[in-house]
Design brief:
Elements: H1 2-8, E1 13-16, E2 25-27, E3 42-46, H2 52-56, H3 60-75, E4 79-83, E5 90-93, E6 96-99, E7 109-116, H4 128-134, E8 138-143, E9 160-167, E10 173-180, E11 188-192, H5 198-208, H6 232-264, H7 274-287, E12 294-295, E13 303-306, E14 314-321, H8 328-343, E15 348-355, H9 362-369, H10 376-382, E16 384-388, H11 389-400, H12 407-416, E17 419-420
Parallel strand pairs: 1-2, 1-3, 3-4, 4-11, 14-15, 15-16, 16-17
Antiparallel strand pairs: 5-6, 7-8, 9-10, 10-11, 12-13, 13-14
Helix pairs in contact: 4-5, 7-11
């Protein structure tokens, strides 16, 4: 609950690329010190001021620092409101080409199109007043190319989830709200066309955010920062201490969520198939102590692990997820990999890890998920072990509960079983 509160509480509105006395912080593109964007609630980015001259004064490390800060806040649920630049500008920096979209977590460009002065009815877009009151004509469209010349910052994404758009009568996207298709990312970016005057654009955005445009204070001069107020320094230090605590809490919560997701994945043993099932089976065996388990040969066995037994060198594993019952062909396939390795001179054990009736409620289908009576004779004759994923799931639960189940017991049970392995 505390983590959600910390992320949902808006600490303030910042402007990057311009200034306004009504916002908490204004940052110019050429700023020497880049603040911690974790303290920002909503970020307004004015790209109209990121002209060739401003771009020329930005170093590659500064671009990286800006992107890292913006992306981290965006990924943690931050909101970005972007006023587009009407042109694409770029400059060479050593072996890189920096363009004026370097800062954005979402890869996009604005392209020139036939001028339009009307659009389709606006619905579910948070900046309707901005569009209807101030924008008279527009000759640009937003696009999301598969590739374009830019610095490929780690984490930036071409995957886009569309929340809402403003579409011109010529079917061009001229504004919209978008999300990055990144796991765990809650951030949103609102893309707005520029107005003739950037100050008007920022005022219009602040109006949409509920900040009055009728009362403005004077912009504070630079020297005012040198003036002290009794008690202010003490509060600054106290705030810094509390921010450090918050950062530690967020770090701890992030770790807890990561561990939580790791454990939740084991539920996939009960319903997944294909490659995803193979991956979670491998993780399950690893947590049970079978550290040597790995992917098998390409287009052959799914998994394989080395045995600590005199009677077997390796266990070859076929992993199968099915919505219905198993067929004898699946069991024969598991046997085939065993015979392959025996031809190589290795004593092998055939293992079939099966998730049958995978989409049926486990509380009602557990018994038939673990019943392979049709294959009993075949498994006994050919030394095949069938391990239902529901049983593997129970083994994992026992391990996580601290019970005395280990790799030696699991391996011995697999090697000794001719048929269905239900317990160790």
């Amino acid at each position: 609950m505390l983590f959600n509160f910390l992320l949902s509480k808006d600490p303030g509105i910042w402007v990057l690329g311009n200034e306004d006395s009504r916002v908490q912080k204004s940052i110019q593109w050429h700023a020497t010190d880049i603040p911690n964007f974790a303290d920002c609630g909503t970020l307004i980015v004015d790209m109209t001021t990121l002209n060739p001259s401003a771009l020329h004064n930005l170093s590659l490390p500064k671009c990286q620092e800006l992107f890292d800060g913006i992306f981290s806040r965006f990924n943690a649920g931050g909101e970005i409101i972007c006023i587009f630049n009407e042109s694409f500008d770029a400059r060479n920096y050593e072996e890189h080409l920096i363009n004026n979209y370097f800062w954005s977590p979402i890869i996009f460009v604005v392209e020139k199109v036939k001028p339009a002065n009307s659009w389709q009815p606006i619905q579910h877009f948070g900046f309707k007043n901005y569009m209807e009151r101030y924008l008279k004509t527009w000759d640009k469209t937003i696009s999301f190319p598969q590739s374009r010349t830019k610095i490929s910052w780690p984490g930036s994404t071409k995957g886009i989830n569309v929340e809402s758009t403003v579409i011109s009568n010529s079917n061009q996207i001229i504004a919209g709200t978008f999300h990055a298709a990144l796991e765990g990312s809650d951030g949103s970016i609102h893309m707005l066309p520029p107005l003739k005057d950037s100050k008007t654009a920022i005022s219009a955005i602040l109006y949409e955010l509920g900040i009055s445009t009728t009362t403005q204070k004077s912009n504070a001069p630079n020297w005012i920062e040198t003036i002290d107020v009794p008690g202010l320094t003490k509060l600054d230090k106290a705030l810094s201490v509390e921010n450090t605590k918050i950062e530690k809490i967020i770090e701890n919560v992030s770790k807890i969520k990561s561990d939580q997701n790791r454990l939740k994945k084991f539920k996939e043993l009960l319903y997944e198939d294909g490659t995803q099932l193979e991956e979670i089976v491998k993780e399950a065996l690893q947590i049970l102590g079978i550290s040597s388990v790995k992917k098998g040969r390409q287009n052959f066995e799914d998994l394989i692990f080395d045995c600590n037994s005199k009677s077997r060198d390796v266990c070859t594993i076929e992993v199968k997820g099915l919505e219905s019952n198993m067929k004898i062909a699946h069991v024969r396939q598991a046997l085939h990999w065993k015979l392959d390795y025996e031809e190589m001179g290795k004593k092998s054990k055939a293992v079939l890890i099966a998730n049958i009736y995978r989409l049926e409620d486990i509380s009602k289908s557990k018994s038939k998920r673990e019943s392979f009576t049709d294959f009993k004779d075949f498994c006994n004759t050919h030394d095949v072990c069938i391990l239902p994923t529901s049983v593997l799931f129970e083994f994992v639960k026992e391990k996580l509960e601290g019970q005395a189940i280990n790799s030696r017991k699991i391996e011995k049970a697999i090697i000794d079983t001719k048929g269905v392995l239900l317990k160790v």
